[in-house]
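Record 1 of the preview.
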Amino acid sequence: MPRVDRGVSEWYETKNVQRLVALGAISAANQAKTAAVFDKLGPLVIAIDQIAVDASGSDAATVRFRRIDTIDGKTQAPQTVTKSLRRVNGRWVAE
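->
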C-alpha cells in the first residue's frame, strides 16, 4: 500500500480526529461528534485498495479507492470512496 494511503488509514485507526479534519476527511463541525463515535469503537483496521487517480491539469485531481473497515474483528462491506482534490498553496486539499 502506498505510504500516503497507509498514513490516512493510520489516522483513522489511531482515531486522530484533528489530523482527519486537517486532511478534509471530516469537517471541523463534526469533529466532536466523530471523536465521540471513535471513543465508543473497539479496534479499527482500515484497508485501502483499488486506487485510481485522474489528474485534471496540474492543480486538480479525482481519487477513487475501495475502503474496507474491520471493527472489533468484524469486516464491514467495502465502500468505494471518491475524493476531489485541488492544489492550494502547493498542497493538495480534499474538497
